[in-house]
């Protein structure tokens, strides 16, 4: 992988993409997302590395590393979006974080309407499936 490094960090349950509620999240897997992001990154001059964890602590530690190494991040915080102040405080330390969602959380259950992450993200892209990630990578490439 060549180009400016970008970490594409995914939170809980996103390892089950393809199997998980396909009517909401689609039929493609995390490995499909990995391949798609690598290709889009290549086209944009970015080395996009996709990671996923179900662990809040691990996600926070990746954000600390992004802060220390000055790496841009595409972040799908998954359910942590809606309540994790610890994740929010980690995002606030990182130089450039674009929050993404596959679905449009604002159009779903009421508890998803609040993102505690958005106020400290550079921007938010939601509702476009995998294309949310492509658009976020394009935004980072031109930031
Ligand atoms: C999600 C939306 C969240 O509300 C949900 O908890 C997820 C996925 C999305 O990508 O649409 O796990 O972040």
Rg calculated over all Cα atoms: 14 Å
Mean pLDDT: 97
Q: Give the bound compounds.
A: 1,3,4-trihydroxy-5-OXO-cyclohexanecarboxylic acid
What is the end-to-end distance?
Answer: 20 Å
Which architecture does the CATH hierarchy give at level 2? Answer: 3-Layer(aba) Sandwich
Secondary structure: helix percent: 25-40%
The low-confidence parts are none
Instruction: Determine and state the CATH class.
Output: Alpha Beta
Strand content is 15-25%
Reported by name, the CATH topology is Rossmann fold
What coarse outline follows from CA principal-axis ratios?
A: globular
What features would you describe in this structure?
By secondary structure, the protein is of the alpha/beta class. The chain has one domain (4-142): 3-Layer(aba) Sandwich (Rossmann fold), CATH 3.40.50.9100. It is built from 5 helices and 5 strands. The protein has helices spanning 22-25, 30-44, 56-69, 85-91, 131-141; strands at 4-10, 46-52, 72-76, 97-101, 123-126. Strands 2-1-3-4-5 form a 5-stranded parallel sheet, sandwiched between helices. The longest helix is centred in the N-terminal third of the chain and has 15 residues, at 30-44. The protein is globular. It starts with a strand and ends with a helix. The model has no long low-confidence stretch (mean pLDDT 97). Bound molecules: 1,3,4-trihydroxy-5-OXO-cyclohexanecarboxylic acid. Residues 13, 76, 78-79, 81, 101-103, 105, 112 line the site of 1,3,4-trihydroxy-5-OXO-cyclohexanecarboxylic acid.
């Amino acid at each position: 992988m060549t180009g400016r490094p970008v970490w594409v960090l995914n939170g809980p349950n996103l390892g089950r993409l393809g199997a998980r509620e396909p009517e909401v999240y689609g039929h493609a897997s995390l490995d499909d997302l990995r391949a798609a992001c690598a290709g889009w990154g290549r086209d944009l001059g970015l080395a996009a590395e996709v990671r996923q964890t179900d662990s809040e602590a691990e996600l926070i530690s990746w954000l600390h590393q992004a802060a220390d190494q000055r790496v841009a991040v595409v972040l799908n915080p998954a359910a942590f979006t809606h309540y994790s102040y610890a994740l929010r405080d980690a995002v606030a330390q990182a130089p450039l974080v674009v929050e993404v969602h596959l679905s449009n959380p604002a159009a779903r259950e009421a508890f998803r309407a609040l993102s505690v992450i958005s106020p400290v993200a550079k921007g938010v892209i939601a509702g476009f499936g995998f294309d949310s990630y492509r658009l976020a990578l394009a935004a980072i490439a031109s930031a």
